[in-house]
Each structure stands twice: as structure tokens, then as C-alpha cells.
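subagent[fold] <- orchestrator: predict structure for attached chain, return C-alpha cells only, no commentary.
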Amino acid sequence: MSHDDAHSAVPDPEHGPASAPRDPVEPLPGVSDHIYANPEKWRIGREFLTRYTGTEPESFHKQVILTNFGYYLERFEAIAGDARRTQGSAMTAAHSDRLGVSIIDFSIGSPVAALIIEVLATAEPKATLFLGICGGLHRSLEVGDFVLPTAAIRDEGASKHFMPPQVPALPTFKIQKFVSQMVVEKGFDYRTGVVHTTDYRFWEFNERFKRQLYEERALAIDMETATLFSVGFASKVPICALLLVSDLPLREGGMKTRASARAVFRQFTDRHIEVGVEAMSQIAERGEHIRHYRW
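subagent[fold] -> orchestrator:
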């Protein structure tokens, strides 16, 4: 079964998950823990989303961008022209009626990525796009390249609470397909492959860890993608990622520094956010219908 096939009936935002026909088999262990199957968790999740982002679930647009950086939020507001910003207890969001898109700056790391994608389920998004940055591992990559992950290695701690370890972390294919089309239409190239997601931030000084990366043939490394894909799968949130290569940590002198990070933001992030915003603003009109199945 693809991850597209795992998205389910739309829950009622006021009263929790809609009832669905039950198969005459025992439910899988742990499924009742998922937010769509637990009315009380759904209710609390709505409160969490409102508290953390400053926006109630019904005020989110059906196309949502996730990011780690306040600058992306600022660029979104500049592109939209009509964006309304909301400040929650831990995150910032903005919403454009003209574009039909919302954006959330959720900060950095696997645990907070798991939190935001799970509670975002209560806003019932039709398409979610993570605009993140990654370290390029493959020798062919350069700073500024786009990576469209076809899968992610779950080397982080959060996703294990949502899916068994043998379940791969995959994007929603139809969103990924549409985003790839938008990248090409904007005149850019991109790479596809497997991204290694880790919660080990200072791994660059661990030789054994680096040898493992070589053995995996991972294209890039980040701290959120596998978590977002896995928890999105578990919570029935359609999601894709478009990553920007910000550094080349396996090369001599390739680790990100304060100066190089500023240079990446100046040179490359505008096109990253512009492609993401255009993809999400047009997917409702031009994209294939993203089907939702019961499982």
C-alpha cells in the first residue's frame, strides 16, 4: 500500500473523527493512539494547534507550507501581499486568502516536527509541503541544489512512537509529483533519492557515523523529513518535502558556518520559498485529485 492509500475520511472538526465502516477484523495495535481514531486526542490536538500557532484549525487553508525559518515566513508575506500573521506560544503562522495557502514556522528538530504534523491533522490539510534545508552527501550535489526526497531513513527517535520500525518513511506521491513539475516549470533542476534523517546534530565529528552514511548511499541528511513523512502517514496528513542543499558536510571545509549560512539565505532561499508557494497555491486548481482512502 502506498502512503497515498493510507489517508482516510475527513473528520468532523467540531466533534472529532467521523465514524467509518469497520472491517470485521481486529484493529492493529496502536491505531487507537492515532489522532484520527481517538476523539479525545483529536479535541486536545485542536487545542494544541491553536495554542502553538495562534491559529484555530478551521482558519488554516487546505494547502500548508512547513518551514524552520522566520525568513521564509517574511518572504511568504511579501509574495502574498495579504498575509495575516499569528503568533502562538511556540510557533508562528501566516495565512493568505489570495494564495489559499498557510505557512508555519515550527522551529527545528524531530520532536517538534512530529508534534506539528500530528496536530495539523485537525486542520484537515489537503496538501502539505515541507520547505527544509539539508546537507548534501552525494558528491554530485552543490550548495543551492534542490532535493525532492523519494524516501527518508528513520534515524531519529520521534517516528518510532507512531509507526513500527519496518515501515518506510515516504512522501505522498501525488503532491511530490506536482511539486517536481513546478520546479521544472520555474526553470530549475532537482535531484531525487533517499534522505537520512537524524537527531544527532554534531555527527560531522563521528567517523563511524560518516562511514555509515557512505554505506547507505544517502543523497542528503536532515533532521525532520523522515519524522514528517512517518507521522504524516500515521495521522493521515498528505505531505511532501522540497529540500535545499545548504552545505556539503562530508567535504573538507564543507560544514555550515555562520557566514556560509548567511550566504545561502541571500543567494538561494528566495527561489526555494517562491517555488513552494507557487506549488501550494496552484495544486488545488492544477493538481491531480489527492485521493483519500480508508485503511
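orchestrator: received. Logging for downstream: DSSP finds eight helices and nine strands in the chain. The first helix runs from residue 39 to 53.
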